[in-house]
Design goal:
The chain has 149 residues and is α+β, with helices and mostly antiparallel strands. It has seven helices and seven strands, in the order ααβααβββββαβαα. Helix 3 (31-37) crosses helix 4. 13% of the residues are buried.
Length: 149
């Protein structure tokens, strides 16, 4: 009887190996769901919209949201001015925590492209004129008073 208890505990203990074994037998997953599960998009509908706008590729091909991915595929995501790419190592069962994402995908984007992306972000932030952008509550009230008089 003690052997049964030990065996049942081994089968049901949540180890990293069991987690990876469970993920490796997963069937292919839709690209929109995969992008949401690995936290590249905040919602699944945002991931679907990006696929529809042809900002996502699987193995260098533009695809539909229903396209399926599997371990070994390379996905690319358009982040102007570059295409970022990742290799799929394993498929998650559902949305995973941020700490588990590196176990599921590996970055394939060239270092030069990542530098180019960072320079573009800095240039965009630097050219913002103070006072531009979203008006403050006070500015909005002043505009409403001006337009309604």
């Amino acid at each position: 009887m003690a052997d049964n208890l030990v065996a049942s505990n081994v089968l049901h203990s949540p180890t990293k190996e069991a987690f990876h074994d469970h993920m490796s037998i997963q069937p292919p997953m839709r690209i929109d769901k995969f992008l949401w599960c690995i936290r590249l998009f905040k919602t699944r509908s945002l991931a679907t919209d990006a696929v529809k706008r042809e900002q996502v590729r699987i193995n260098e091909r533009t695809v539909k949201a229903s396209a399926e991915v599997k371990p070994g595929d390379v996905i690319a995501l358009r982040e102007p001015p570059i295409w970022r790419s990742w290799a799929i190592v394993a498929l998650p069962v559902s949305r995973v925590g941020a700490k588990l994402v590196p176990e599921l995908i590996t970055e394939r984007t060239a270092f030069e492209d990542l530098e180019k992306l960072e320079l573009a972000r800095l240039a965009k932030a630097q050219h913002r004129i103070p006072g531009e952008g979203r008006p403050t509550k006070r500015d909005r009230r002043d505009m409403e008073r001006f337009t309604h008089e």
